[in-house]
Amino acid sequence: MEQAEAYLNQIPMWTREKHSLEEVREYLDALGSPDRGLPAVHIAGTNGKGSVCAFLTSVLAEAGYRVGTFTSPHLVDIRERFQINGAMISREAFSQGFSEVLRMVREMEEKGHAHPSFFEFLFYMAMVIFREARVDVMVIETGLGGRLDATNVLEHPAAVVITSISLDHTEYLGDTIEKIAGEKAGIIKAGVPVIFDDSIPSVRTVIEGTAFRRGAARYPVRAADCQVEGIQAGHLEMTARLLRGGSLHLSIPFEAVYQAQNAMLAVRTLEVLRGPGMREGISCRSEFCKAAACVPCEGGENRAGQEAEGAWNISNRQIEEGIRKTSWPGRMEQIRPGFYLDGAHNPGGIEAFLRTAGEIAGRRGKKAYLLFGALSDKAYETMIQMLAENFAWTGIGVVSPEGPRGVPADQMARDFKRWTACPVRVYREAREALADMRALAGDELLFCTGSLYLAGDVRRILKEEEQ
Predict the structure, then answer these.
(1) Which domains does the chain have, with CATH numbers?
(2) pTM of the full predicted structure?
(3) Three-state SS string across the chain, please?
(4) Which of 120, 174, 440, 459 would give a disulfide with 116, using CB separation of 3.0 to 4.6 Å?
(5) Mind listing the pLDDT tens digit for each residue in 150-193?
């Protein structure tokens, strides 16, 4: 596996351009079209994609489905990008998937095709791995944007989800919210229902316009669809309003209030998947309903006498249990008592982070320290200004995430000092930063944010400490 990972990490040296969707389709066809015949939920957005993937995966697994999930980036181990029922794949499965894709790539190169990009190679691996694992359904997160993303080769997913949208990757996706929304909406397919975050009117206009033109049913998720009741024992307690009346009580295993909207997107998607007329305890006879607990209804009809063909067998209880059991590391995760790790890496994510950090500090009545690091292709100056102006930090530490894209710590420190008089400490590497900032915070609170790569560095160091 180490050789395979080393090979993958060198790919940017060979290719920096994405292939067209037509070319991606050629590569997949050369692999035997492993994506065809597998129902999928396809997810795009700026923030919350990974969380929605995690919620959906947990609930579908709870309902008895075998779920293959493809997300990015990873925090510590590249295998995190490929999960079966929420657990990363084995080293053997990774190596086998890599070998099969590499063999195909060599054959395509001999025919004159260019080498796939890093993300494309991993996407091909995911399709092969999920085929070999005989999954019932795939949960697929886009890599960048949507319209031109390699994952958009999926021809007819069971549902499309678009999470919250904000400014990020503007050099690729456009410099306005509306332009970025247009790129994300590019994953909408004819006749495929789209479930989307309805918090920004201009985004709603773009998504609904695209869905209307493509004949896709629209399911907006609004703030009024869920009510946060409070936080108990580290769980966000929430009531979710269902499409056809009634509600669910959800206990979300995160303290971040923004996870309520992500959970609501997942709930609405699951409602859409289980089809019209489906209620608690109603089974179906669907080509996709492979859950062990699913017993076809007498005569193939549900209790309302409606055909259940095409509906998925997911009960309200399974939704509640699946949400409660969800795990998604590095997203306002209390990784140690009083130490919160969050992968917010754009202004929209930082805005949500600040709301949650303020709520946690206020509720616990403690001072708060910040450890920050960012990548150079992110809007790090804007993030720094937001963090400095909108929170009374007791102390700030800055460190560059590992890798060539990390912003130098000295530069981040200068930017912080433009906006705050709070003491700013500069660290050369994550291990030193983590040890010193944890000691400095003591029994108070420490928050780490700015980059999923920094979150990965911290998780790796903490894991090594346990060994």
Answers:
(1) 2-224 (3.40.1190.10), 333-466 (3.90.190.20)
(2) 0.85
(3) CHHHHHHHHCHHHCCCCCCCHHHHHHHHHHCCCCCCCCCEEEEECCECHHHHHHHHHHHHHHCCCCEEEECCCCCCCHHHHEEECCEECCHHHHHHHHHHHHHHHHHHHHCCCCCCCHHHHHHHHHHHHHHHCCCCEEEEECCCCCCCCHHHHCCCCCEEEECECCCCCHHHHCCCHHHHHHHHHHHCCCCCCEEEECCCHHHHHHHHHHHHHCCCCEEEECHHHEEEEEEECCEEEEEEECCCCCEEEEEECCCCCCHHHHHHHHHHHHHHHHCCCCCCCCCCCCCCCCCCCCCCCHHHECCCCCECCCCCCCCHHHHHHHHHCCCCCCCCEEEECCEEECCCCCHHHHHHHHHHHHHHHHHHCCCEEEEECCECCCCHHHHHHHHHHCCCCCEEEEECCCCCCECCHHHHHHHHHHHCCCCEEEECCHHHHHHHHHHHHCCCEEEEECCHHHHHHHHHHHHHHHC
(4) 120
(5) 999 999 999 999 999 986 655 666 678 899 999 999 999 999 99
